[in-house]
């Protein structure tokens, strides 16, 4: 698109729309500033120790957020490990290997997963998943329960349950972004592979290799989503501040502690400590999301050849 | 066929099976959750549920009428806030031709998209609840609106980019100002798609709970005033789910069924609309 | 032209919204927002509903978010009144923008609830045993200390799953107040507050959350207000009082706990009656308070709430017993009616 060229009407248009764009930027910056301002007491009181200490003691006024960071990272990484192969598998199937007639209904069905609200996941988690985890835990043999990964009383609410729900929630997200990335790989790559006598899988591998940067970006986007998820997690994770490798131990995440304690933080320091957690969550998700979007952006820009207007029209008609 | 070719073919088949298996694996939770929600909720969806207020604690019966209306109010408020900002900034990003403000705005939209909903709730609490010393439906609507903005911006942006340059150039060649060209030619061409995107955004945001926890607060009575707390379906489901009362659990499932149905119907409508509009475009 | 249609639609939609929502505001109802304790939520929701039947234009919207939340929202002035089972500390009173008055509304009991597969009878708990369980020192149901005071009960070796509050709670305050009185170690390690640093346990939100957790988790123990155990058919045990008797929570036992305090009620009504001396006393009892500003800015709401309190302390008390609470003793009611006059209308 050409830049604006002169004219009062154009300038009015530019100002009108530009002010909304500016508003958007102001909102985002505003979030950062407000979070900073409302957490200043805690930042001054604890400094960097906030992230290293594990004591969260509202009575004594000692706040250390290490258990929440641990819980957030551990649950998100676990979810990523479970969800990524499935999401990439779906993306590959739907963009490369799927018969044409099956594609649209399957796409619709997998996107249903994304449409289910978080609270419904949580509800299902409480009444279906938790009893399932509890009975699974009760039935594992005693020698297995000794492993650090499986210790704990059979509460049901646990890190493992949270990881499972998070994984289910990020699969559609990652797979749809990955599918877009795969779609932007130029046809010539596939055609070249087939011309050389590749099997379907081998051609797919070529495409995957070409798109690896974008795929990585899609995975990171899923990670970012998992980091910020609140409701479903707080309903199944057990809300107990502790650092543990065990999948069966109840733990706590940053988003969950804010949701639970925010309305009740009776003294200012407690409130500011919670907002500080919110600030860090904001910064972490910012970094992860922007990093991944950058990767995907670069990939899709490079991959998609400059489209001429007529080609765009026919592409649109064919879609 | 050599042994090596056989191996390659087998590997290819196995991987295809694995990928197909992933799809099936992903559909299992969908099926389970939907089945559960329908099974648990369908029995409780009676006229009472849609018309009555919650009863005092421990008494059975009552409904979520005020919460359903509340969700509609708050979502509509969010839309009123987000649609103008989203569409206008989307227009600016696309039509400004790569100014710094445009790329910054895009950057901001992507950032906002990734902000966790609980953080937005904290932000709106600090900005719209504390200074006015009251929880309000307005604050709840604001929180949802902030979440909707980046989705609408993105949709507008993508759809405007799809509009061919020839349309813009044609309008400009006929002497229209930039603004006129966009609003009378380009935007209407992209509008059906944008509306579809807006409906999808509404459906998604209607299911949000976290940003409403400390903004809309909750209300046991009928209320549609913007300056009072308001009950919402999602927060009500959350409160009921955590309680020990069987009757409240039953109502939570019914509420979940209503929510899921709403979201699905909107998604379905949006998808059908897209298909029909594409057909229209092709014909026209 | 499509431009006009688009703009026209938006204007019409905005206008319709304003009109529809304005209609809501124009009604003559008075809505008063309050928040706080989950402990008295069953009776408060009954009271507000009954009062609304008597005065249909008065809607008292109470959100049960925990005592800590009630205090916080009252201090922020985002609600008109608060509710708490743990009286405000001097620091909290100082932080409030105006003078806050406490008014006891009912008496209630915190009971230890449990869910032990195979055990249907009633369990006895001593203060020390409870303290040790919640400190994490006793980890299995068939621990010697528990078995000693429950001869004849077949306790399994199931691990104890401790459930406590994840939010700021007056119920917690009452419970830890009691535990700190009977166990010096609990007092030093955990202390007394609405939100404490629990050494063990799962967090549930509200009395409802803890009851839900215990009900769904085999081997669980928790603490809730009596009515939550009754309404959900959860087993609750008897607790040993200062006189050495094992007493189960009843209205009579709770009323007896207040007897000493009634004789010497402080002017601001902030008093603890846990572990009270005497026979037949239930040791984990407490008043629960509604919090009002002495000089509120909204006089219409103030007048309404004063009238509500007069009703609640009079006719309202008859709902107390059927919901598992004890009525406020008559001498205290008289003192309160006099104190209500302090609120500047």
What does the average pLDDT of chain A come to?
Answer: 84
General shape of chain A: globular
| Strand residue percentage of chain A | under 5%
- Structural class call of chain B reads mainly alpha
Oligomer: heterotrimer
Number of β-strand runs of chain B = 0
Task: Describe the strand arrangement of the main beta sheet of chain A, using strand numbers.
Answer: 1-2
Q: Determine the N-to-C terminus distance of chain A.
A: 23 Å
Question: What share of the residues of chain B lie within helices?
Answer: over 70%
**Backbone CA Rg of chain B:** 24 Å
Main β-sheet description of chain A = 2 strands, antiparallel
Helix-strand sequence of chain B: HHHHHHHHHHH
Shape of chain B: globular
The count of β-strands of chain A is: 2
**Rg from Cα of chain A:** 24 Å
Low-pLDDT runs of chain A: 303-319
What structural class results from the helix and strand content of chain A? mainly alpha
Helices and strands of chain A, in order, run as HHEEHHHHHHHHHHH
Major sheet of chain B: none
Which chains make the largest contact?
A-B, 98 and 99 residues
Topology summary:
The complex is a heterotrimer of chains A (319), B (284) and C (345).
Chain A: H1 8-37, H2 40-46, E1 56-57, E2 62-63, H3 66-97, H4 100-115, H5 118-139, H6 159-183, H7 187-195, H8 200-210, H9 212-228, H10 231-236, H11 254-261, H12 268-303, H13 309-318
Helix pairs in contact in A: 2-12, 3-6, 3-9, 4-6, 5-6, 6-9, 7-8, 9-12, 11-12
Chain B: H1 3-42, H2 47-51, H3 65-95, H4 100-114, H5 117-129, H6 137-162, H7 165-173, H8 178-206, H9 210-213, H10 233-241, H11 246-283
Chain C: H1 2-26, E1 30-36, H2 41-54, E2 58-64, H3 67-76, E3 81-84, H4 90-95, E4 100-115, E5 124-125, H5 127-135, H6 144-149, E6 161-165, H7 170-182, H8 184-189, E7 202-204, H9 206-216, E8 220-225, H10 226-231, E9 235-236, E10 238-240, E11 246-247, H11 251-263, E12 285-293, H12 299-313, H13 318-322, H14 330-340
Parallel strand pairs in C: 1-2, 1-3, 5-10, 6-7, 6-8
Antiparallel strand pairs in C: 3-12, 4-8, 4-9, 4-12, 10-11
Helix pairs in contact in C: 5-7
